[in-house]
Amino acid sequence: MIYKDYGTTGKKISAIGFGGMRFLEEEYTKDKAIAAQLVHEAFTRGITYFDTAPGYCKDQSEEIMGEAFKTMKYGDFYVSTKCSLWNAKDADDTRRMIEQSLKRLNVPKITFYNLWCIKNMDEYHQMTAKGGIYEGILKAQQEGLVEHITCTTHADSDDIAVIMNEGLMEGVTLGYNAVNFAYRRKGIVASHEAKKGVVVMNPLGGGAIPQNPQRFSFLTEGTTDNVAVAAMKFLVAHKEITAALPGFSTVAEIEDAVAATKNLPVIDEAYLSNLAQKLGEELNALCTSCAYCDECPEGIPVPKLIDSYNEALLSEPKDMANVASKLKNFWGITAESAKKCIECGICERLCTQKLPIIERLREMAAM
């Protein structure tokens, strides 16, 4: 296992983290100890960063982690959990969420406590306003219940840069993988340059990469790796990334992720340029989220809509419900804005892949 500095916190965490939102329901509903064994398996393989949240796995994830932590020495592992606008309206609510998480997790303090799912600057300002979530976490930190204040975000890269440079956060968790790196890279670079810890979620594209090995076979060129391992290596090799955060359901998935810390490629601009070219050649129907099309005169968030349309292209058979889910759960929007399209064609002229954006917007508007 490789261990990397988490910003300037003084913590070194494993380059592969454990995302606690994919425990198998048939296991944890029968006995949490069964699911907790997966945490132990990860720990014995060198994974020391465990991420969870209230609500994950039907609100059982924190308790599953806590069951495992009972027999793990505190200080040999690090735990990350979260609080958002949907479960805390003010600092007092936040304090109650922190105390609930401490009890569930069976730990004396929470290593990394996140302002959860910041989608835009308005939400960031709401969370950090006087009497809000940030103030509640800060007070808990002063009392020794929280070590480091961090955040998770789906904001644009420019907004991420602003948030990281403002200095309230010691680290960030954001979505980044071999498909969307062109759109998200600016955010991780800005965070790294601000000396923040950078954890990347959705490392396998929500399962799209391993579920479509032929589409993503270019990732494995010149290696004997399977596509999931290759996609993880791509992330671990980034100097800007502290840890990749896959969700685990089986020991085999853990073994694949740990294998991704060996024989890493060299990630430089030439490598990224080559990868971008491969994405264009092999996946010419799939948006790579470069965001060059983000010039709509009607203010339509074209990059977010077309990025979400990938979910329809990757599903067999084509399923627009997957698109709606991505829009809601990842970007925090709906397809309603697609109805504003005046078909001026600016976005299609700017698209480096020459995708049929207008046609896709029509389809999304009809959802």
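(the above was protein one; protein two follows)
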Amino acid sequence: MNNLRLEVENEIAVLTISRPGALNALNSETLDELNTVLTEIEARDDVKVVILTGGPDKKDNPYKSFVAGADIAEMVNFSAAEARAFGMRASVPFFKLMNMRQVTIAAVNGFALGGGCEIAMACDIRIAAENATFAQPETGLGIIPGFGGTQRLARLVGMGRAKELIFTCDNIDANEAYRIGLVNKVVAKEELMETAKAMAAKIISKGSYAVSVAKAAINNGYDMDIQNAVEMEANLFGITCSTHDKQEGMSAFLERRAANLTDF
């Protein structure tokens, strides 16, 4: 991989986007690499959580950029058909981040602009360093977000705030992103990866199969009517009650001991 680094330890995969000369902007090569590595990770039983972050810049500053957007140098001469294909190319790994059985955490260090904000929104959870900056600046370039921004942002922060951010191209800091519900947590930049790994470890300590089923229930039920969504949940609840982890977890609770949850 030319633009990604993958490290796996203690059932946590740290996936780092690394294009230091371009502030980790997403080009076609990076999107294809991301799709390949996420496909490989999803098949691994030894990975329960994926942390996505951005690599340092040329001056080795690890907190300057998460992902500074899509690569405008690649996009500048796109035709309409090429632009659509580029957007669809991004949607494949972005939906993997959203739907893969592993929990995905965006550890946002620095700029999360355009495609950077969009890839963070595709993750299950977002933790921001205190210096993180978020924006959807596309309309200032005469285009609209093309990697899911008009859809995921509205679902996360509401239609009114999403319209304001997309129409004005305003940058917001980490605390404002937290206030409007775009990120789950804001931490000191030096504590970003430690916090993300601690959250990952807590998630891993629960029933990993149950977590993956809960993720699917939330994702699939979000746009359903409540009656059908609750019925879907009941069906999935029934499935989890047929597992080893259910029997072990409930037995451990009644016996006042730590549970050994192994399903995934």
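Reviewer note on protein two: Strands lie at 4-9, 12-17, 49-54, 65-67, 103-108, 111-113, 125-129, 133-135, 172-173, 185-187.
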